[in-house]
Specification:
Shape: globular
Number of strands: 14
Largest sheet: 5 strands, mixed
Helix content: 40-55%
Structural class: alpha/beta
Order of helices and strands: EEHHHEEHEHHEHEEEHEHEHEHEEH
Distance between the termini: 60 Å
Strand order of the largest sheet: 6-5-7-14-8
Mean pLDDT: 87
Low-confidence stretches: none
Strand content: 15-25%
């Protein structure tokens, strides 16, 4: 099919080339030969009268025109995919749909178990991919590579709809037999060694941002890629872990830790569920959104009862 003399099949190839910046990787993604992808790139270059990809040392880089069209091309394809693949009705008991959800380790250990129990009770045939968050995770949402993002509101995109799921706060978790078992002052906090979650992308975590605004630096002795592991790492030490309160209380049911208020200014934060604006009326996503709301109710009830 052609539009304004452009073979629309080339848009998919163009999207992969712009994203991967590699002819061989784009060919692999589309299950086609490298020579076929090279031919597609030649046709794209001819149509746009632009090299699109240029060699720079060992890497290929986008031209200025390619950079300018990258988001627009992806937006077109997401809109088409949403129109074609969204079913008018969704019956979870009959569906084998696979939902893709971007979550942090915190979310994975708190609300996700409740969500999966509820989902399985409705339909064991549904599938779920819980994907690790990266820096600016809403980028995958915008590219149509994820159905949902669950993250603090400050880390969500301003361009897509979202709804608040729950609120939480940060607290200090320490070993219940250590020097900080009875309490933590501001000086204690900044003089102690800390265990901190550091994401693979090395992006700043939400809690790191407001602690840095306190005009004093903490001493980080241990880093981990897991929020949940922080509680285990302070046991039998005098180190401090700054943790989400709900996650810390869950860990305290199994570990010898106690919790204290964080002695630096911080506000409660909203954990939100976000989806692409084009999929606002997707029946499957509407079902999953309602199920997440029920899962949060179960999680908060469990937290309150503990």
């Amino acid at each position: 099919m052609r539009f304004n003399r452009l073979d629309l099949n080339l848009l998919v190839a163009l999207d992969h080339l712009l994203t991967l910046r590699s002819i061989s990787r784009a060919a692999e993604r589309m299950n086609m030969s490298q020579s076929a992808m090279s031919n597609a790139l030649a046709r794209i270059r001819e149509y746009f009268d632009d090299p699109i990809l240029v060699q720079n040392g060992r890497k290929m880089e986008l031209t200025a025109r390619a950079e300018a069209m990258q988001d627009a091309v992806r937006d077109i394809l997401v809109r088409i995919e949403t129109t074609v693949t969204t079913e008018p009705e969704f019956d979870p008991t009959q569906s084998t749909r696979q939902f893709r959800v971007l979550v942090s380790d915190y979310t994975l250990h708190t609300v996700v178990p409740h969500f999966l129990r509820l989902a399985y009770a409705e339909s064991p045939s549904l599938g779920f991919d819980f994907l690790q968050q990266i820096e600016n995770p809403y980028g995958l949402l915008e590219r149509g590579e994820a159905d949902f993002l669950i993250a603090p509101q400050a880390m969500c995109s301003p361009d897509h709809p979202l709804e608040e799921l729950w609120e939480d706060e940060f607290i200090c978790a320490v070993w219940n037999q250590g020097r900080h078992a009875e309490g933590i002052t501001r000086d204690d906090f900044f003089e102690a060694g800390h265990v901190r979650m550091s994401p693979p992308s090395r992006a700043k975590t939400y809690e790191a941002r407001f602690i840095e605004s306190s005009a004093r630096e903490r001493t980080v002795s241990v880093t981990s890629y897991s929020f949940y592991a922080l509680a285990e790492m302070v046991v039998e030490t005098d180190r401090i872990a700054t943790m989400h309160a709900i996650l810390a209380r869950k860990a305290a049911r199994m570990l010898p830790i106690v919790m204290h208020p964080l002695p630096v200014p911080n506000d409660r934060f909203s954990q939100c569920l976000q989806w692409h604006e084009y999929r606002d009326n997707d029946p499957g996503l509407l079902w999953a959104r309602a199920l997440f709301a029920r899962a949060v109710e179960d999680m908060l009830a469990e937290d309150k009862a503990a």
